[in-house]
Specification:
single chain, alpha/beta, ten-stranded mixed β-sheet, two-stranded antiparallel sheet, 38% helix, 15% strand
């Protein structure tokens, strides 16, 4: 790994302890998900441990491994998962000196299409277009049953559901088209919930939970941030939002770049939209609380005093963004290119970005009520207040 600036672990831990909630938000992005492993590894080394993990698609898988293991085992289990699914060698293209790296990534992407990924998914023997309606395998090109076995091997679902670390995973109801989050504070999460969150059609099959069927949550929203901002518990929250697609990018100049840029925009985080909406709500709440203060107590209607007290104590949010930047000439196969070299590159990038972020402990200072929500992004260096 590259040299990183020193991180004062004790200082980071103290800063995080000032928050009632430390949340890790994990976006979807397939093979890019190993970036999130690097992020978590750096947070664990800094003893900045989340008490809530919320994920979509590959973020749900990484999140389940985190929530379903003891803190001292999480990094090893994450690395075991990625060594499994990205462990297939691309010989003869993949060499230690790597003079044919570009060919290696192309070969890896084609191998994913043709062979699937170990411990994750495999191609069906019969093309779904050739099968009758309602036949097994008629609605997806790949079988994801191997993922269930992998999850049962790497995740202790008893621990995942015991409340030590809250887990939420996003999926989409196939029948209604509505986004839905499965949450350990509400229900018991099983392997099927994790698989549903990552069931991207038409590649992977929809997953039945109860009487409904679900697909990948990224179809509606590829970031779980809105689910966090919709909470009404007014907790002071430190958020590490880990995105795998960048909304910012260069204007494409060839068709491969067009396809890659379209994917970036489609799956990038809607952070600005979510934070702007959250800012508006906080301002309205503050104004309503202030207005109720000016009403004589005897004129307050039942429940208005409690409403005033609740709205006067808003839950501020410190949003730390970690966005995978990727290589300048990366193609549109980056989210299904699972080569060992790419996996290590993504992991190292996540680790480096997080260490560079934690080298600014002042970024973890708790916002004031006047700030409401504050955002920091290591790639933009300067923090920006979104509510003042």
């Amino acid at each position: 790994m590259s040299t990183n600036p020193p991180v004062k672990t004790a200082s980071i831990a103290r800063q995080a302890a000032r928050y009632e909630r430390v949340a890790l938000m994990l976006q979807g992005g397939g093979a890019l998900g190993s970036y999130q492993v690097g992020v978590y590894k750096a947070l664990a080394e800094a003893e900045c441990m989340p008490n809530w993990v919320c994920g979509v698609s590959i973020g749900a898988i990484n999140g389940a491994i985190i929530a379903g293991n003891a803190p001292e085992n999480r990094v090893a289990k994450l690395e075991e998962f990625w060594s499994l699914v990205a462990g297939r060698p691309i010989w003869p293209f993949e060499q230690s000196a790597n003079p044919m790296r570009e060919w290696s990534t192309v070969a890896s992407a084609w191998m994913t299409i043709a062979m699937g990924q170990p411990g994750f998914f495999k191609p069906r023997m019969i093309n779904p277009w050739l099968l009758p309606s309602d036949a097994s395998g008629s609605t997806s090109f790949y079988d994801s049953s191997e993922l269930r076995k992998t999850l049962l091997k790497l995740v202790d679902f008893g621990r995942l559901n015991n409340g030590e670390t809250r887990l939420s995973v996003g999926a989409v109801n196939v029948r209604t088209g509505n986004n839905q989050f499965f949450d350990t504070t509400v229900e018991r999460i099983e392997p099927e919930h994790i698989m549903a969150s990552g069931a991207l059609p038409p590649a992977l099959p929809m997953v039945k939970i109860g009487t409904e069927y679900f697909w990948d949550g990224g179809i509606v929203s590829n970031t779980p941030l809105q689910h966090l901002l919709d909470q009404e518990d007014d907790l002071r929250t430190l958020v590490f939002q880990v995105d795998l697609f960048s909304a910012l990018g260069e204007v494409p100049r060839q068709m491969a770049q067009v396809m890659a840029r379209q994917k970036d925009i489609t799956y990038s985080s809607r952070t600005r939209e979510a934070t702007t909406s959250f800012k508006r709500v906080l301002k309205l709440r503050a104004k309503l609380a202030d207005a109720l203060k000016r009403v004589p107590a005897k004129l307050l209607q039942p429940g208005e005093r409690e409403l005033m007290e609740n709205y006067a104590d808003i839950g501020v949010v410190n949003l730390i963004q970690l966005i995978y930047q990727g290589k300048k000439n990366a193609g549109d196969s980056k989210d299904y290119e699972f080569s060992p070299n790419s996996m290590r590159d993504h992991l190292n990038a996540g680790y480096t970005d997080t260490m560079n972020t934690l080298a600014h402990p002042e970024w973890l200072d708790r916002p004031s009520a006047a700030d409401g929500i504050v955002e920091h992004d290591v790639h933009r260096h300067a923090p920006s207040k979104l509510l003042g």
